[in-house]
């Protein structure tokens, strides 16, 4: 899908240089994937300390076949 956006050309040129992608479209798509991954990681980090942890849980025992 083609869209038109205003992009800082200096940033795009730098991203092309450091990213190793061959096209502007591939560079933008990679940047978007990395942006999404980073935000999802941040959301996971926000969960630390908010979830209850069962110290007695034995994951190895749960994997045993019965």
Main sheet?
A: none
Average pLDDT level: 89
Query: Unreliable segments (pLDDT under 50, ≥5 consecutive)?
Result: none
Spatial extent as radius of gyration: 21 Å
**What is the share of helical residues?**
55-70%
The structure class reads mainly alpha
> How far is the first residue's CA from the last residue's CA?
52 Å
Strand residues, percent: under 5%
Shape: elongated
What does this structure look like?
By secondary structure, the protein is mostly helical. The protein contains three helices and no strands. Helix 1 packs across helix 2 (24-47). The protein is elongated, with a radius of gyration of 21 Å.
Based on the model shown, name its key terms.
66 residues, 3 helices, elongated, mainly alpha
């Amino acid at each position: 899908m083609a869209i038109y956006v205003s992009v800082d050309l200096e940033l795009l040129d730098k991203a092309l240089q450091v990213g190793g992608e061959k096209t502007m479209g591939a560079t933008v798509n990679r940047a978007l994937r990395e942006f999404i991954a980073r935000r999802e990681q941040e959301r996971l980090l926000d969960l630390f300390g908010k979830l209850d942890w069962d110290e007695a849980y034995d994951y190895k025992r749960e994997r045993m076949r019965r």
